[in-house]
Design a protein that fits this description.
By secondary structure, the chain is of the alpha+beta class. It is 31% helix and 23% strand.
């Protein structure tokens, strides 16, 4: 998870906390290519558009770089869950990969 500090964004993960230099090109590609302002879709919306089941969409996009995941850990009284949203650029990248190209 990354957040903006006063001068440079801070990258917080379970293993480390470090400053990310301004204009760095060492950021993962999906951080640089996904905009927070682009359209994001829920798996149900993509399933309706593509004629797939929601389970198929979840399976296809679960480990795709750039997909936003919000996880709530399991507790004694509540089960855990993972909610995902899929940016339009990620959806189009997967679509282009699935399209059969003419030879």
């Amino acid at each position: 998870v990354c957040s903006k500090a006063h001068k440079a964004p801070i990258c917080r993960s379970k293993k480390e906390t470090r400053a990310i230099p301004e204009g760095s090109t060492t950021l993962p590609l999906h951080w640089r290519s996904v905009s927070a302002h682009e359209q994001h879709y829920r798996p149900k919306e993509i399933a309706r558009m593509w004629g797939w089941s929601v389970k198929t969409v979840l399976r296809r996009f679960r480990n795709e770089p750039g997909v936003l995941k919000v996880e709530r850990p399991e507790s004694l009284k509540r089960r855990g869950y993972c909610q995902i949203t899929i940016p339009e650029s990620v959806m189009m990248r997967v679509y282009e990969r699935l399209v059969v190209k003419k030879l």
